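Sample entry (369 residues):
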Amino acid sequence: MTAAVNALFQPFQLGSLQLPSRVVMAPMTRSFSPNGVPTADVVEYYRRRAASGVGLIVTEGTTVNHPAANGYAHVPRFYGEDALAGWKKVVDAVHAAGGKIVPQLWHVGNMRRQGTEPQPEVPAYGPMEKRKDDQVVVHGMTRQDIQDVIAAFAQAARDAKAIGMDGVEIHGAHGYLIDQFFWEGSNQRTDEYGGSLANRSRFAVELVAAVRAAVGPDYPIIFRFSQWKQQDYTARLVTTPEQLGAFLAPLSAAGVDIFHCSTRRFWEPEFEGSELNLAGWTRQLTSKPTITVGSVGLGGEFLQFMVKTDKVAQPANIEGLLERLNRQEFDLVAVGRALICDPDWALKVREGRMQEILPFSREALKTLA
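Predicted structure, serialized as tokens:
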């Protein structure tokens, strides 16, 4: 193993969180949990990645206990005895394989699809009301609704700690509920949760603080955020390092331990005049550990392989990624689609068997391998 590759397999420690490697499994919705309950196949899916050398698994998005949290079929819940029992089996299997695991806690907000179980009559919730044909399709959240959602995240974090999860990740990216409050394009509220970016961040800051209060001072909290939105890939919350620092500081103070900085291409610089990517800038501005992510290990940006296409993403070398990791631009590396198609990706990279890594295609999404 070369010195560069070795950096990816060095242990990482932050307080109580001790990881055997710097490889993180990125959260990816798989929709193989009927009635929101992880199955034996889900247990094995995560166990295999841990056994191959993934240091930290961030689960697919799991919905908190709020009537409008879910928007898609067969997405797992993170509430209810049946779902939590299923997740406990996942936790035990991952730990037995030598890995660590955190759930990604999720509320889809106004991306909820009408008629989604378990309460199909419930409309989507979001920062602003939306109507179509004189029907409310998105319920504009009241202050009480905001507090209810915050309480649901805090309870999910308590439950995560109780079943042995190694921390939690809060999903604040990609145009879902928390990000809908961040983004000016979806939040034109006129109360204390709208207006300036500081006001639009208030919901997330209060939510992080509530999670911190629920789990205590030493339990790891990861926060995932992004500039881009699935509603607008060109969207940007901030355009300068100064603005990014002002955005991150209240979240950091509220209790975030690690920032998961979601980009579509990890190699792209975030601001002019510097090669640092979003994770690099975030680490520099907050002094908190960061996770980089975005088409790692793929021969091209991941979205081009996600549409209806026969394109196959050939494995890509990761020399540039390793150089950045060795420079300590970021601390951890999240791998997504490359780990869906090949559960042994980490092991093959560690052993220098890059030519054996399986290519990614949409076919890989049809099963839990």
